[in-house]
Amino acid sequence: DGLPSLSPADLSDDTFDQLGSDWVVDADYHDYLMVTAVNTPYVDSQLRAAPGAHLADGAMHLFVIDDDRFTKADMTRILLDQSSGKAFMASDYVRRTRVRAFAIMPQHRDDGPDRGSYIDVDGEDFPLKPTFVEVVRGLISLHVLPADH
């Protein structure tokens, strides 16, 4: 609803020049320290990064750390406060936004110099190639048995 038609196969080096006005392109900065997208309050069993996130709200919470001033001490503060997520949410170095879709265009591909870059999806290595992620509501139904059975 409103998103331009775009699939992973459509992504190329000049794709961002062709995106519609619904898309925001962050073309000014390319050295990201971390990009995290979640649709639940927790990134993992301990890091509460998006307290307001809900599985059924049709959005992802996108977090980007790209500031060269972000230090190891800043990361340590965030890691030590994982369970509440307050340090993560309060950090001036973490940009936060709700999105329905996003695309990542790595500058360093699998077939070139990667300078230590990598993409991790749910703990698994992911190829350094253009990647498109979109929330698709109603794609899965979850049925659970109550705990008292």
From TrEMBL:
Chain ranges passing through the membrane: none
Gene Ontology MF terms in the entry: lipid kinase activity; phosphotransferase activity, alcohol group as acceptor
Domain of life: Eukaryota
Domain YegS/DAGK C-terminal intervals: 29-142
GO biological process: sphingosine biosynthetic process
GO cellular component term of the entry, any: cytoplasm
Pfam families (UniProt xref): YegS_C
Entries under PANTHER family matching the protein: ACYLGLYCEROL KINASE, MITOCHONDRIAL (PTHR12358:SF31), SPHINGOSINE KINASE (PTHR12358)
Protein name: YegS/DAGK C-terminal domain-containing protein
Native source organism of the sequence: Sexangularia sp. CB-2014
